[in-house]
Amino acid sequence: MIPTETFSRGVAxxxxxxxxxxxxxxxxxxxxxxxxxxxxxxxxxxxxxxxxMLRAEQAALDRRYVLADELYKEAIVxxxxxxxxxxxALFNERYADYRLTEHGDKEDARYYLAEAVRYYTEWGxxxxxxxxxxxxxxx
Length: 139
Hints:
Blueprint: H1 3-20, H2 23-41, H3 48-61, H4 65-80, H5 85-103, H6 106-123, H7 126-138
Helix pairs in contact: 1-2, 1-3, 2-3, 3-4, 4-5, 5-6, 6-7
């Protein structure tokens, strides 16, 4: 399995699990989270931010909100520090969605979407950044 591909599948499954409340998505996402955890434990330095993000998504699904907040922020830092700008952007985008859907916090959602726009722009994904700017204007 390729780490980035596996991780992307996990994020999509967690997003669907939160949106639909379906256990089948949560179960498959949990399997991927465990796989990424094994890779981190085996010493792969390139999956630490993936694991933190998947743990944040799991905590959000489990309604462990304090832990979810900590893990989302941790994942963002783990992605941004070594320069994984596209991952830092995605993590900010997911955290904004979580803050809005689970807490109704539009101010936090705007802040983290703005951070996602900044990272996407820095990475060169101008189209994605423009799409998020339009989403922010709707909040």
